[in-house]
Design goal:
Number of helices: 8
Helix content: 10-25%
Order of helices and strands: HEEEEHEHEEEEHEEEEHEEHEEHEEH
Radius of gyration: 28 Å
Number of domains: 2
Strand order of the largest sheet: 4-3-2-1-6-7-8-9-5
Distance between the termini: 97 Å
Strand content: 25-35%
Structural class: alpha+beta
Number of strands: 19
């Protein structure tokens, strides 16, 4: 009797376990696991993400280290965009099951406008799904999973992130330029070794050498003449301006040669404590067509933006809003 009772208890426990995994483990869902399991819970295991649209445009995001990614194996990917994408991949949930009568229309729309997403762990492709447009209330996104081995398509669903009011389509963007890290300088003051700016007017130029905590040397990069007295607090404040310096957009390649062959208005040279040197040349930009109408002044040059050449390689547009405080004359430190 005791043995029979034990067998019955074990049998009942197995049945309860089976019921749990079938019905309760995935949010009290009675749907099959394969056709709605969009999320990757362990995003730290993801090594590559491939996103493509119907126009044969694509981007490949590859993990190169802890928290660092490359876009198309060419440029560092924006950390904010990568964090948002990984969070999205981790949090995807089914919001609504779509009426089977509407499947055909949804699938047709996905075929026209969806982007394809492939997620890899090592060399293994673990997820394939299509991200379509938003629902009428803009609180959900049409998506459809595929078998990562056979690419057999499953049923479409309306997907969302719990607690987020909006749709997810815009998080899966493809343009390489939008993925590029826009950082030029990201340094705390004592991560720097030296900072210099050369202007056409030599007496406005300066160089700061960081010798130690609260220890600086200020001189002129043309003459090497040292400043005997200068405002240490002004130097410390100035060095904080290099903590987050970003470019705005890439500049048109057609203008590069004509612009960069002209004299720069300033040349910045920044060397960090590890010996990495970044050189930035700044050039005037023609004013926008509506500049006079906007400000009521006829400008010779754009009052808002400049062209910049980074390390004689990347030709970009930067804002005076960012660089205005950096482009100080030597007298700034002599007050």
């Amino acid at each position: 009797m005791k043995k029979n009772r034990l067998y019955i208890i074990v049998f009942l426990l197995l049945i309860l376990a089976a019921i749990y995994f079938k019905f309760f483990k995935n949010g009290f869902s009675t749907m099959g696991n394969s056709d709605h399991d969009f999320a990757v819970r362990d995003t730290a295991s993801i090594t590559k993400i491939f996103i493509a649209n119907k126009n044969n445009q694509s981007v490949t995001l590859t993990r190169t280290g802890k928290g660092t990614w490359l876009a198309n194996n060419r440029f560092p990917a924006r950390s904010d965009a990568m964090n948002t994408l990984l969070y999205t991949i981790n949090m995807l949930e089914v919001k609504t099951v779509i009426d089977p009568h509407a499947w055909d229309n949804v699938i047709k729309n996905l075929a026209v406008q969806a982007v394809k997403v492939e997620i890899y762990e090592g060399a293994k492709r673990v997820k394939v799904y299509y991200v379509g447009g938003e629902t009428a209330d803009e609180l959900g996104t049409y998506m459809m999973l595929s078998n990562p081995e056979t690419e057999e398509n499953y049923k479409p669903y309306i997907i969302y992130i719990p607690g987020f009011d909006g749709y997810l389509t815009t998080r899966y963007f493809i343009k390489e330029d939008d993925w590029r890290d826009r950082s030029i300088f990201q340094y705390y003051p004592y991560d720097l070794k030296s900072v210099s700016i050369q202007y056409p007017a030599a007496d406005s130029s300066f160089r700061i050498n960081i010798l130690g905590k609260n220890q600086f040397m200020l001189d002129n990069p043309f003459t090497n003449q040292k400043a005997v007295r200068f405002d240490t607090m002004a130097v410390k404040q100035y060095l904080t301006y290099y903590q987050s310096v970003l470019w705005e957009v890439t500049a048109p390649g057609t203008k590069r040669d004509s612009i960069t062959n002209s004299p720069p208005i300033a040349i910045l040279r920044v060397e960090d404590a590890k010996g990495k040197v970044t050189t930035l040349k700044l050039f005037h930009r023609k004013p926008a067509a509506n500049a006079e109408q906007k400000y009521g002044i006829e400008y010779k040059y754009d009052p808002d933006r400049l062209f910049a050449l980074i390390n004689n390689k990347d030709f970009v547009v930067v804002q005076y809003f960012v660089f205005g405080k950096i482009l100080q004359p030597a007298t700034y430190f002599l007050r």
